[in-house]
Write a structure and sequence with these properties.
13 strands; 1352 residues; phosphatidylinositol 3-kinase regulator activity; WDR81; WD repeat; two-stranded antiparallel ribbon; mainly alpha
């Protein structure tokens, strides 16, 4: 069908508008986008609903999206629709009966070495026998001669759809839905699955899943995909062979598929779109005739010479009916002419259905009149003479074989009365016509007519007073009688003597002494009439007609079994039952292209054992001393030779030509149903050869446009290209190409036989090629499939067979791979792993990605090795861990992290997974990513990058910096040290760019000592310290390797340049807060794993990659106004930074595990880590805050004060006192200035300022608790003075004269002589700090917390 016609059909029957369709690769296919609800309604209701249009896109946009391949929403689905237009009045041959091969195990499909040798020898012997039988045997092929009933084209296509796709079938006319036959047929994994099939009276629509790319696209536009490894192209061929074998077992032909019909996925999995229309096998023109077209066929002239017809009939390759009809034509008889109608013999008296045979050595006239009457008639005519002594009558026995009167009597039931009264009897008397066929046969002296063998209508009367012609009692109907009568004509009893009847009717017994002796002298031939006539008897032969060769019971199309001596029998008995035809065996290998359909309507097997003919007694002796063939006594070889000699003499003397022995029986056999099936199988094998040429020599065929060629032209072009480019064809496929296309060693076509069939024995000594044969592992010399192809394909086929079968498909696929990989991976080389990896990567992006990574990563990465594992699996695993969600919790377990370190190496692990681990500790992985399929770019959803949530950073690495947010802010928002502390100017504050503070360290310097440690050694040391069971130790790792840990960490505190970005305009979304204390599956697991990792990485790597990133993660915990709000939930005892009860922030909950990890790391590696890294980080961060206070900076500032509260308990008194001045100078005093200044607007407003004031007060309290009252008065007085001065400045409580505030005790006593005076700690001050809070910091209930400052 043309593409426009296809679109009109879709519009008419399925209501799909043209804008929602686009042309596919083939003319009868269309790609359409439909709504899933419309598709579901079609399958459930049996009729299409009104088409649902896209709500957001216009028709033009939908059409453009289709052409460009743009994705649609998940509610829309792309389908491939194949449209077949069928003529309702055409009938074709049915499909062959399928084989029950789907219940056979994979192991049973492969032959052992001895079985293979036996198969080759036995099959070659049988094929040679069949070839000789076709060429020389005179035995009629009775099975082939049986008529195959024709069926409608629609029934054949629907049956093919049921076998191949096992999908629901919808009758659109009756709106009836036929469910998929799941019990009997299963869709092959390499066959494109079908959603449903819809049929009308003259159309069939097959709706299939759509795959955008075909093998044609791959070899044309992306040839490098197949050129990366030799195994890739071979695996494509292997998959096609598997589908060919399955389709043969189902009795369905794939047809001449092209590269466009072979669809391919990125993982190199093949799905084929079969050519369903090529299963329509039309009955070819035969010499035999059909009942309904009897008159037409009888009038048609034969297209073969009499010599050829004679030869075919003698050899049993032409039916008796066909040959007699041909002789009638050659004798000048005309079908339907009353005086010269076709004549056939009466062969039975109808006393029984299989008996009452007529004597064919005598004419019907002689049998009816008797010899005495004929002798009297002949002698009487001889004795009567005229006056001139000439005979008065011409002596004769028979006037004609069929008179006009007899013709009309035969057809009296179908002839008008006027003609009957004119030619039979003037008066109409129905009783004078024979009432039954038995009575007619007894009454008439003439021969029969073809209608009594073909047309049951002659028995039905058109006259009311003339009843139907009665049939014998053993016949149930006229049709049944016709069938039995025809079988009687073709029976052996008739065939053996039919040549005598031919001699009487058309042969030498029509004249001469033979005619007199046979009492068959025909008047028309001896009366010497002089008037010109257009009808009469014609003598075709002047010699005795050769008899039809009698079927020899020892000569059959199936080769007889050879009986071996006892020793050989014992050897043969050891073969398995696979060679026995009596045992239900799986499909193995086809015997030959012709024998693929020998059992029409019966189940057969490609590798059948020899069948023993009854009463065969000859054997082949295998003794060394005597080598002879013993034939049975009644074999009759002399009679067979005599029959050949008689046929040759008759042809030479009568027909003046010798019978030719070329292509015996080809015309008749090619017309047989099973022969047409065999031709389709050969075509499939030749198509495979063309596909191989088009794959490997695609660059030579691109200008040929083979896609639109018919098969013959495509095959011819491939043969020419192969012959010319034979050297460019890879050696791996030269053998199989030469076998499939029948080429010699130089690539030239072997043209010694017909192209429609293969030779019985190929030049390699093998039977004709088939899918079953080429898939045999022991025949790797034909096509070198690697040994791991079979288990790999078995595993992948099982995975793909589960596609769209259930909601848990991906989980089942992971389980299948997990059970199959341990035995498969040791067999595979690098090319095999290249085929397997894409399927595992696909599962790493599915709904069961976590389970796939947990179960499949380690064995596959071990087989790949560190370098290739990092290349193939690093990005999918990284994206998986970045996606987040509670289901990813076990990916952060230390056992899986250890596998990542071992398989990827320590450097790759640190560079790619530390960031995700730290983010998980901060709670950013407790929330599922918006794209679970992980198709977004890598690192797009990183919490620390905050590219998606904040849209702040535009730098190359996409890393969040606290400075990026306001780098382009107005000058009035930039705070300098001079503004905070008048009289002090910061140098270069107006020209220097702010460094990035919150940059996670992924890539270390090459000269860094941490990167000098080799990955295998670190991995082994980690494995040695981890108390978990591992299956196997990694190969190539020294058992005594150890990691050298430096004593101190030196974090990199050098500032880096930060890129500028626009300020944030939307509120940041913090990590999800738990509902209960135990709702942190990912953060809990990751926190434990991080501490485990910190124990084993050593201080240098820990400080550089763990604690440094935790410090940056701490800032993000307080990012955003919502994180700085007071927490209204139940207070947790896990908080590390809460010294004052009831004043807990939301960010405190988020930072609980981060602070805990930082504290644990400090406990592991000592105070030096706190002094050098933690205090250094706080100092640098606060120094940057003095330059510009951004949203990120305020969060980092609050996080630093929380960290101060968390780590103070881990410092010794000596260390704390050593660092107290630096803490005050670099951390606390600047923090007080920031909270007190009015020139530094906080991005989060009053919420951030009061949170900072609270955390600062809490830090002061904890330090005071550690150093005692004396040290507090000594070191913290100035800090507290500045802190509380900010509150009274806000409320104008400063004494104008002294400039000090009054400080009173709780009992009202005024304190004097102190450098700091605080007056009236009233609720107004509290509300300034903690508005909208439930408790007050300076309330009377909490006074005991602060008396320590100034106790007397």
């Amino acid at each position: 069908m043309e593409n426009d016609d296809v679109k009109q059909s879709l519009r008419k029957f399925l209501f799909i508008p043209e804008r929602y369709t686009k042309a596919a690769k083939n003319d009868n296919q269309i790609v359409a986008v439909v709504h899933r609800s419309w598709l579901s309604s079609l399958v459930q209701k049996g009729r299409p609903d009104i088409f649902k249009y896209h709500e957001k896109l216009t028709d033009y946009e939908v059409d453009l999206f289709l052409k460009l391949g743009e994705p649609f929403e998940s509610a829309w689905q792309l389908v491939l629709i194949t449209v077949l237009h069928l003529e309702p009045d055409e009938n074709v041959y049915p499909l062959p009966r399928p084989r029950q091969a789907n219940l056979v195990s994979w192991d049973a499909l492969n032959l052992t070495y001895s079985q293979l040798l036996h198969y080759i020898a036995d099959t070659n012997y049988k094929n040679s026998w069949k070839e000789a039988f076709k060429k020389y045997s005179c035995l009629p092929d009775t099975k082939s001669a049986q008529k195959v009933p024709l069926v409608s084209k629609r029934a054949v296509i629907l049956e093919a759809i049921k076998r191949l796709f096992s999908c629901p079938v919808i009758n659109l006319d009756t709106q009836e839905v036929f469910p998929a036959p799941k019990d009997r047929y299963n869709t092959h994994p390499n066959c494109l699955p079908a959603i449903c099939a819809v049929f009308t009276s003259d159309h069939i629509f097959l709706l299939q899943n759509y795959i955008p790319h075909s093998l044609f696209d791959c070899v044309t536009f992306s040839p490098a995909v197949l050129n990366l490894a030799r195994s890739r192209s071979l695996f494509l061929i292997y998959q096609i062979l598997q589908l060919l074998r399955d389709s043969y077992d189902k009795g369905v032909a794939l047809g001449g598929i092209s590269l466009n019909d072979v669809l391919i996925t990125p993982s190199l999995w093949v799905t084929v779109v079969p050519k369903l229309e090529e299963n329509l096998i039309y009955p070819k023109e035969m010499l035999s005739v059909e009942i309904s077209d009897q008159a037409v066929q009888c009038e048609k002239k034969p297209d073969a010479s009499l010599s050829k017809l004679l030869d075919l009939w003698v050899r049993g390759q032409l039916s008796n009916f066909d040959y007699l009809i041909a002789l009638n034509r050659l004798a000048g008889r005309r079908f339907g002419h009353p005086s010269h109608h076709f004549v056939l013999p009466w062969v039975t008296d109808f006393s029984s259905s299989h008996g009452g045979w007529r004597d064919l050595t005598k004419s019907k006239f002689r049998l009816n009149k008797g010899d005495r009457q004929l002798d009297l008639t002949f002698e009487t005519a001889s004795g009567l003479q005229n006056c001139d002594s000439s005979p008065l009558q011409i002596p004769h026995h028979v006037s004609d074989f069929l008179s006009e009167i007899t013709y009309f009597v035969y057809l009296a039931r179908r002839t008008p009365k006027s003609l009957l009264c004119k030619y039979v009897r003037p008066n109409w008397v129905p009783a004078e016509y024979p009432s039954s066929i038995q009575r007619m046969q007894e009454w008439t002296p003439d021969e029969c007519i073809p209608e009594f063998y073909t047309n049951p209508n002659v028995f039905k009367s058109i006259h009311e007073d003339l009843p139907d012609l009665e049939i014998p009692s053993w016949a149930t109907s006229p049709e049944h009688f016709i069938e039995k009568h025809r079988q009687a004509l073709e029976s052996v009893s008739v065939s053996e003597k039919l040549h005598h009847w031919i001699d009487l009717t058309f042969g030498y017994k029509l004249s001469g002494s033979a005619a007199i002796k046979s009492k068959n002298v025909c008047l028309y031939l001896v009366d010497n009439h002089t008037n010109i006539s257009g009808s009469g008897a014609v003598q075709l032969f002047t010699q005795p007609h050769p008899h039809r060769t009698t079927p020899n019971p020892y000569m059959d199309k199936i080769a007889p079994k050879i009986a071996f001596p006892s020793s050989k029998r014992r050897l043969e008995s050891t073969l398995p039952c696979i060679l026995s035809p009596a045992v239900s065996t799986p499909d193995k290998i086809e015997e030959s292209s012709e024998s693929q359909s020998d059992q029409v309507g019966e189940e057969s097997h490609p590798l059948e054992g020899p069948k023993t003919l009854p009463k065969i007694k000859y054997t082949v002796s295998a003794e060394d001393t005597v080598k002879a063939i013993h034939l049975p006594m009644d074999y009759g070889i002399v009679s067979s030779l005599q029959a050949v000699e008689n046929l040759s003499n008759f042809s030479l003397e009568v027909l003046h030509e010798m019978p030719r022995d070329d292509n015996y029986g080809q015309r008749q056999l090619s017309s047989h149903y099973k022969k047409a099936i065999a031709e389709s199988r050969v075509k499939e094998m030749q198509t495979l050869g063309c596909l191989i040429v088009e794959i490997y020599l695609s660059s030579k065929l691109r200008a040929a446009d083979l896609v639109h060629y018919d098969f013959a032209a495509r095959l011819e072009r491939c043969l020419k290209v192969v012959e010319k480019e034979w050297r460019d064809l890879p050696c791996a496929v030269k053998k199989v190409t030469s076998v499939l296309l029948e080429l010699d060693e130089s690539g030239r076509k072997i043209s010694s036989h017909s192209q429609d069939f293969y030779q019985p024995i190929s030049p390699m000594g093998l039977p004709p090629p088939s899918a079953h044969q080429l898939l045999q592992p022991l025949l790797s010399s034909v096509i070198p499939f690697p040994s791991y192809f079979e288990p790999l394909y078995k595993l992948l086929a099982e995975i793909h067979s589960l596609e769209s079968s259930s909601d848990e498909t991906s989980e089942l696929q992971v389980n299948i791979l997990n059970s199959g990989l341990p035995s498969l991976l040791p067999k595979m080389d690098e090319d095999g792993l290249d085929l397997l990896v894409p399927h595992v990567v696909r599962l790493l992006k599915s709904e069961s990605a976590t389970n796939a990574a947990w179960r499949l990563f380690d064995p596959l990465a071990k087989a790949l090795g560190p370098n290739r594992a990092a290349k193939e699996l690093l990005d999918p695993i990284s994206d998986l861990m970045d996606s987040g969600g509670a289901t990813r919790a076990k990916l952060y377990h230390r056992s899986f992290l250890l596998k990542l370190m071992v398989r990827f190496g320590l450097r790759a692990f640190i560079n790619n997974f530390i960031k995700s681990l730290v983010e998980a500790v901060g709670g950013y992985k407790d929330q599922q990513c918006k794209t679970p399929t992980l198709e977004a770019e890598r690192r797009k959803s990183d919490a620390l990058n905050v590219v998606e949530n904040f849209n702040l950073c535009d730098n190359e690495a996409g890393i969040l910096s606290p400075l990026d947010e306001d780098s382009s802010a107005d000058s009035d928002k930039v705070i300098t040290e001079q503004e905070i502390m008048p009289g002090k100017k910061e140098e270069g504050s107006d020209v220097e760019n702010e460094p990035e503070v919150f940059v996670l360290e992924n890539e270390g310097d090459e000269n860094d000592p941490a990167n000098s440690v080799t990955s295998p050694a670190v991995a082994l040391d980690l494995m040695a310290q981890l108390e978990i069971d591992m299956d196997q130790e990694p190969e190539g790792v020294a058992q005594n390797a150890d990691i050298e840990e430096p004593k101190a960490a030196t974090p990199n505190l050098e500032p880096e340049e930060a890129a500028t970005a626009t300020p944030v305009q939307t509120e940041w979304r913090p990590p999800r807060r738990p509902n209960t204390a135990t709702e942190f599956p990912v953060s809990e697991e990751s926190a434990e794993s991080l501490l485990w990792l910190a124990h084993r990485l050593g201080p240098v790597l820990t400080a550089r990659h763990l604690s440094r990133n935790l410090l940056r993660m701490l800032s993000l915990c307080y990012l955003g106004e919502s994180s700085l709000a007071p927490s209204k939930g139940q207070e947790s005892s896990e908080s590390c930074c809460q010294a004052i009860p009831g004043m807990k922030l939301v960010g405190d909950i988020n930072s609980t595990r981060v602070l805990s990890c930082l504290a644990e790391i400090a406990a592991i590696y000592g105070e030096q880590l706190v002094v050098v890294q933690y205090f250094g980080h706080m100092t640098e961060l606060i120094a940057l805050c003095k330059r510009k206070l951004t949203l990120n900076m305020e969060a980092g500032l609050i996080g630093c004060l929380c960290l101060m509260c968390s780590i103070v308990p881990y410092l010794s008194d000596a260390t704390l006192m050593e660092q107290i001045l630096d803490i005050l100078k670099n951390i606390l005093h600047p923090a007080v200035r920031l909270v007190a200044t009015s020139r530094a607007p906080f991005p989060s407003g009053i919420t951030a300022r009061r949170a900072l004031a609270y955390k600062l007060l809490e830090a002061l309290y904890l330090i005071a608790m550690r150093i005692g009252s004396d040290m507090t008065r000594l070191h913290l007085s100035v800090t507290l003075q500045r802190y509380f001065l900010a509150f009274d400045k806000a409320y104008d409580r400063i004494d104008a004269e002294s400039g000090f505030l009054e400080v009173r005790r709780d009992n009202g006593e005024l304190l004097k002589g102190s450098p700091l005076q605080i007056s009236q700690a009233r609720q107004t001050v509290v509300y300034f700090i903690w508005s909208n809070c439930n408790s007050s910091v300076f309330s009377l209930e909490n006074r005991s917390h602060y008396n320590i400052f100034y106790s007397c």
